[in-house]
Amino acid sequence: MSTTSPPAPAPTTTWVDRYFHISERGSSISQEIRGGLATFFTMAYIVVLNPLIIGTQADSTGAFLGGGDVPHAMKLVAAGTALIAGIMTILMGVYANYPLALAAGLGLNAFVAFGVAKLPGMTWADAMGLVVLEGVIILLLVLTGFRRAVLRAVPAQLKTAISVGIGLFITVVGLVDAGVVRKAVGGPLGELGVGGFLAGWPMFVFVTGLFLIFGLYVLNVRGAILYGIAATTLLAVLVEAIFNVGGQTDATGKIVNPTGWGLNIPSWPTSVFSVPDFSLFGHFNLLGSFEKVGVVSAVLLIFTLMLADFFDTMGTMVAVGAEAGLLDENGDPPNSQRILVVDSIAAAAGGIGGVSSNTSYIESTAGVGEGARTGLASVVTGLLFLAATFLSPLVAVVPYEAATPALILVGFLMMQQVREIDWTDLEIAIPAFLTIVVMPFTYSISAGIGAGFVMYLFLKLVKGKVREIHPLMWIVGLLFVVYFAMDPIKGWLGV
User: Fold this and answer.
1) Distance CA 265, CA 398 (A)
2) Helices 471-484, 146-153: crossing angle, 10 deg rounding
3) What is the DSSP letter of 394?
4) What is the torsional sign of CA 177, 178, 184, 185?
5) 372 Rama class: left (phi>0) / alpha (psi -120 to 50) / beta
6) How many CA atoms lie within 13 A of 85 on its CB side?
7) Rounded to whole angstroms, how far apart are CA atoms 446 and 310?
8) How many whole angstroms separate alpha carbon 455 and alpha carbon 150?
9) 199: which of 38, 49, 102, 194 fits an S-S bond (Cβ 3.0–4.6 Å)?
């Protein structure tokens, strides 16, 4: 009779666990849900901010999006922004299985509103047509393998520098959005608060949230970021109810109350439900811009949009993967091809939806900081965005001052990767330094990546080590030179 013990039964897992590889990546369903919630609450501002940027601006013909007035345009943009963000973020989770959320890209939307739609003869439909074309071109570059090949051609330590630079960038974004750092008139690049002081109740809310989130984090409290955002939002609502602080700006965007709330006024809405209007969907004219501004100008506009989108996403996906511990030995995230496919589709989808190019959001690191490691977190974030199409009044309760402390914490976590750079190797240290510092100072991920790439190529050329450089790095470097020299090139071409 055999005395061999029967094998232990294999641990049972749900189909959700198996599909998203949750246990395999050292996560749990509860962690993924918390991560998805944290990501949503740190980037939900886009549902309010995107309408303020593209919904309040007329095109060159004087028309607003949707053909109505400003309030009508803002309502349409808010619904469309949440819809496209929800669909594309769910697609990222289900298809690419990556904790990365997408929404209308900040910077890109401003460029579309002020640099494209206002060109002589251009309409909003023409501008969105350019966005669709940009997304289609990027998708073709992904499907041909070019975009992924570029990702693999970048030296690992430069990828680390990109992550660190993004960490500093989102820290600055958090400080600026909260009003801790503001533009100084006739002084340095920025000043502390109002007149050099942390003045006003919103600043009190931000500082309280900052200490709360860091305190919970060092105590190893699961859900520190999410709990911090929720508690600080409730504090903000209470402060507004008692002191009637109000917003910083009036209806025209002029600052009339420097110590007011930065974006949302955190008062509890009379109704949490609104019926969305998706009539902006399909509001684009694919080739209209070529007729209005000419082929050369249209191509240059597409190139500008494409280059920013192309490298912003590369930096973001690497940074998220680094923070989550998901990168391979070459510094690449899992399913990178699928991630890039979804991101490319999102760029075109934003134009089709009439809300500007959608792209990956670095605020996804807030969810990663909360424990997200798989695409299930993205599904949660996406579902919340879809719910926000009906619950936009509730989304507007969370002010900058309650959400931005999470970005400061995530910035700290990403900054820790700086130790992986060999600062004794000047050929990599100098490009890494430029990458890290240019991002926050220019408010542009692409500009930081470009500065680092161009300097890296220059130093290798000076040292006579041309053979060490991947051929694709030369192509990308030349593209960045063109990007940085876009203004004189336009002058030379007479456009």
Assistant:
1) 8
2) 100
3) H
4) positive
5) beta
6) 34
7) 8
8) 17
9) 194
**C-alpha dihedral sign at 48, 50, 53, 59:** negative
User: Taking CA 358 as the corner, what is the angle to CA 355 and CA 359, rounded to the nearest 5 degrees?
Assistant: 160
Tell me the Ramachandran region of residue 164: left when phi exceeds 0, alpha when psi lies from -120 to 50, beta otherwise. alpha
Contact assessment for residue 247 and residue 257, using Cβ atoms and an 8 Å cutoff = yes
pTM over 0.70: yes
Residue matched to tokens 């280059």: 307
Which segments of the chain have a pLDDT < 70? 1-12, 52, 184-189, 251-253, 308, 392, 395-396, 495
Structure tokens at 307: 């280059």
To 10 degrees, what angle do helices 486-493 and 471-484 make? 70
> Residue 8's CB: how many other CB atoms inside 10 A?
6
Cα-trace Rg, the chain: 23
Question: Is there a contact between 42 and 178 (Cβ–Cβ < 8 Å)?
Answer: no
Q: Rounded to an integer, what distance in angstroms lies between the CA atom of residue 491 and that of residue 101?
A: 38
**The dihedral formed by the CA atoms of 377, 383, 388 and 389, expressed in degrees to the nearest 10:** 140
Determine the 3-state secondary structure of 99 from DSSP. coil
Q: How many angstroms separate the CA atoms of 428 and 440, rounded?
A: 20
Are residues 414 and 365 in contact, defined by beta-carbon separation less than 8 angstroms? yes
Tell me the C-alpha distance between 85 and 88, whole Å: 5
| Tokens linked to 195 | 């007149």
Residue 123's H or E segment, with its range, is none
pLDDT tens-digit series, residues 259-290: 899 877 888 877 777 889 899 999 999 988 89
The domain ranges of the chain are 21-269+294-490
Whether the CB-CB separation of 380 and 338 falls below 8 Å is answered with no
Q: Which helix (H) or strand (E) holds 95?
A: none
CA angle 342, 282, 117 (to 5 degrees): 90
Q: Which of 83, 105, 75 is nearest to 384 (CA)?
A: 83
